[in-house]
Amino acid sequence: MQSAVDLARSGQAAGRSRRQPMSWIALAAIIVSLLSLLPLAFIIWIAVQTGWDSVSALVFRPRVGELLINTVLLVALTVPIAIVLSMALAWLTERSDLPGARLWAWLSVAPLAIPAFVHSYAWITLVPGLYGLWAGVLVSVLAYFPFLYLPIAASLRRLDPALEDAAAALGLGPWRVFARVVLPQLRLAICGGALLVGLHLLAEYGLYVFIRFDTFTTAIVDQFQSTFNGPAANMLAGVLVTCCFVLLALEVLVRGEERYARVGSGAARHWQRSRLGRATLPCLALPAIITLLAIGVPFVTIGRWLVAGGSDVWRFDEIGLALGQTLFLALAGALLATIAAMPMAWISIRAPGPLQRLLEGCNYIVGSLPGVVIALALVTITVRIAMPLYQTLFTILVAYALMFLPRALISLRASIAQAPIELERAAASLGRPPLKALWSTTIRLSAPGAAAGMALVALGIMNELTATQMLAPNGTRTLAMAFWSYSGEIDYASAAPYAFIMVAMSLPLTWLLYVQSKRMAGR
Predict the structure, then answer these.
(1) Burial 78-116 (b: 16+ CB within 10 A, else e)
(2) Who contacts 173 (Cβ-Cβ below 8 Å, separation ≥6)?
(3) Which contacts qualify for 22-30: CB closer than 8 Å, 24 or more apart?
C-alpha cells in the first residue's frame, strides 16, 4: 500500500513538473512573439500618428509609383527566370547522367556563400556600364537562384519513381509525365523557394545601389540618411511591408491545399537517370555557364583587385578589428536568436494547438520583413522611448534576433521533434526541477540542431548591411561595413580583402547547408 501511495505522489509531482515548465515556457514564447511584432506595430502606430492626410500625401505620389513599378518588374522578371533555371539545374544534377553531377550540384549551391552586394560589386567592376532593371534581374538571379535550387533538388530526390513509371505506362511522353506527375509534386518546393527569393529581392539594398536601380529599400535608406527617420521613410516602409504581405498571400494562394504525402514508404528502389546522349554537351554547357557567371565572375574580380592592390590593401590592423567585431556580433546574435527561439520550438512540438500556431505565425511574420524596416522601427522606439538604448550593442543584437529568429526556430524544431518526451518525464519523476529536467534531456539532445541554426543565423549576420549601418554603436566596423565604405569611395582594391574574407567564412556554412539537404533526402 505504501508503495502505491509513493507512486501516486511521484505521479502527481511529475504532473506538476510537466505543467510548470509548460507555463513558464509558454509565457516566454508569448513574450518573444509579442516582441517580434514590434516592427509591424510600429508601422501601424506611425501611420496613425501621422494622420490620413499626411499618409496619403506621402504614399500616393509619383515617386512611390516609380518605386512600386520597379519592385513589381524586378520580382515579376527575376522569380520566373530563377524558377526555370533552378528546375533545369536540379533535373540535370539529380535525374540525368550529366558528367560530374555531384560537383555541379555543389557548384549550384555555392553562390549562397557570396553576399549579394559582392555579386553586384564584381559585375559592376567587370562591366562598368551595367545599370538598370535588366542588370538587377541578371545579378539577382545569379545571387538568389540557389534558394530555389535547394528545395527543388531535395524534392526531386524524394519523389517515388513508381508514379512516373505508371504515367509512362499509360502512354504519356517524357514532357507530359514531367508536366502532369513531377511538376505538381514540386509545387511546395517552388512556392517556398520563390517566396524566399521574392522577400530577399524586397529586402536587398547593396546589390541595387551598385547598379543604380531604385527600390523601396534603397529609397528608405536614402530617406533615413537625409532626414533621419522622417515620416517619408516610415511611410515607404509601410508600403514595403504591404508588398511583403502580398507576396505571402500569393504564396499561400498558389500553394493550395492539395495533399502531397502518400501512405506507405513508396518504392525502395531509386529512379534510373535519364540518358542525355547527344544532348550531353549542350546540357553540360548550362551548369558550366551558370558557374562561370555566378562564381567565376566574383572570384576573378576579387582576385584581380587583390593583385592590383598588392600587399598595401591588406591592412591587417583594420581587417583584424573588422573580423573580430563581425565574429563577435555573429556569435552573440546567433546565441540570442537561438535562446529566443527555444521556447517557441519547444511548445510547437510538445504542445501544438491554436495558441502555438498563432505564436509561431508571429515569429515567421517578422522573418519576412526587410532588415531596414526592423532597424527603422528600433531606431524610432529607442529615440522616442528609450534613448539610452539608441545605437547600443543591446539594440543591434535584438534586431539580429528578430530578423533571423525563423532560421533558428526551424532548426530547433526539427531537433526537438527527435528528442523523446518520455526522457523529460523520467527526469521530472526522479525529482529534478523542471528547468533542470529540460536541460538534461531535450536541450542536450537538440544541441546539433541548435548548432546548425546558430550557423545559419551567423551566416546571415555576417552578411547583414542595412540594419548594422543603422543600429551599430559608434566605432563599429564589421567586414560588410568596411567593404561598403571602401567600395562607396570607388576604392575597389581596398574593398577586395573584405569581400574575400566574407566569402571564405561563408563557404563552410554553405557546404554544411548542402550536406544537410542531402541527408534530409536520405542520401
Answers:
(1) bbeebbebbbbbbbbbbbbebeebeebbbbbbbbbbbbb
(2) none
(3) 22/347, 22/350, 22/351, 24/434, 24/435, 25/343, 25/346, 25/347, 26/343, 26/347, 26/351, 26/355, 28/343, 29/343, 29/344, 29/346, 29/347, 29/359, 30/359
Sign of the dihedral through C-alpha 460, 462, 468, 469: negative
- Per-residue pLDDT tens digits for 299-330: 999 999 999 888 888 988 899 999 999 999 99
d(CA 35, CA 272): 50
Q: Which residues of 220-232 are buried (b: 16+ CB within 10 A; e: fewer)?
A: bbebbeeeebebb
99 vs 3, 271, 375, 523, CA distance in Å? 69, 17, 47, 19
Q: Which three cell numbers stand for residue 363?
A: 515569429
Higher pLDDT, 143 or 162: 143
∠ CA 123-129-133, rounded to 5°: 80
* Residue from 395, 408, 394 nearest 346 by CA: 408
Q: Which DSSP helix (H) or strand (E) runs through 491? A: none
Could you give the CA distance from residue 102 to residue 515 in angstroms, rounded to a whole number?
Answer: 11
Rounded to whole angstroms, the Cα distance separating 12 from 6 reads 10
At 401, give phi and psi (nearest 5°). Answer: -60, -40
Q: Supply φ then ψ for residue 212, to 5 degrees.
A: 55, 50
Amino acid (one-letter) located at 368: S
Nearest CA among 406, 397, 332 for reference residue 368: 406
Place of cell 537538440: 446
Task: Calculate helix-pair angle for 146-158, 133-144, nearest 10 degrees.
Answer: 40
Question: What one-letter code names the amino acid at 4?
Answer: A
Q: For residue 96, list its beta bridge partners.
A: 274
Cβ-contact 424, 437 below 8 angstroms = yes
Rounded Cα–Cα distance for residues 164 and 166 (Å): 5
Cell of 380: 524610432
> Is residue 220 within 8 Å of 232, Cβ to Cβ?
no
Q: Which residues 6+ apart lie within 8 Å of 476 measured at CB?
A: 325, 329, 396, 468
Per residue, the 3-state secondary structure of 199-235, as one string, reads HHHHHCCHHHHHCCCCCHHHHHHHHHHHHCCCHHHHH
Tell me the whole-structure pTM to 2 decimals: 0.81
In degrees and rounded to multiples of 5, residue 96 shows phi and psi of -115, 170
Helices (H) and strands (E) in the chain, counts: 28, 0
* Nearest 10 degrees: Cα torsion 366, 372, 375, 377: -70
- The three-class DSSP label of residue 385 is coil
The three cell numbers of residue 367 are 522573418
Give the range among 263-272, 342-351, 463-472, 479-488 with minimum mean pLDDT.
263-272
Residues β-bridged to residue 30 = none
pLDDT (tens digit per residue) in 398-440: 999 888 888 787 777 766 766 666 666 676 677 666 666 666 6
> H or E segment at 472?
none
Q: Are 471 and 395 in contact (CB under 8 A)?
A: yes
Q: Residue 296: CB partners within 8 Å, gap ≥ 6?
A: none
Backbone angles phi, psi at 119, to 5 degrees: -55, -50
